[in-house]
Amino acid sequence: MNSFGKNNIPSNDFSDMEDAYISGANNTKSFSQWDVANANATGFGAAADDFMERGIDLNEQLVRNRPATYFMRVNSDAMIECGIYKGDVVIVDRSIKPVNAKVVIAVLNGDMLIRRLEKIKNNFRLLTDGNKLSPINIDNTCEDFFIWGVVTYVIHSL
User: Fold this and answer.
1) Structural domains of the chain, count
2) How confident is the model over 114-124, as pLDDT tens digits?
3) Where are the alpha helices (H) located in the chain, listed in sequence order?
4) Does residue 75 fall inside a structural domain?
């Protein structure tokens, strides 16, 4: 339905429009490129719209279980041989079962250590990938030891 003002000149009053599209972002953090609708003002969409990809979300790519995942900064050179350097950020998932040969965050006597787990029968050993530090043997008599989480990814700058 068209709206005409004086002398049959179209007016700028859009109150009659039934299908008006109004969009706005509540805040910029929750607004993404997928919130913008395609406007078909010319009768067809842009050809590039078919190939539009969203950006890479590192949380989506690197975090499997959000409530159980933590980011920790490494303060040791113990795992240099496997590519984990002092100052790197490791992503630790507490929901993953620690198994043999995984890099873990272990708590021993109140200290957090990043080491490779070796399980032999009912005993554990915490190893570095190099031979700089001697292995830490954990047996059943050790009361102040537990595996805090399993390292899933490491992030470091070049």
Assistant:
1) 1
2) 999 999 888 89
3) 58-62
4) yes
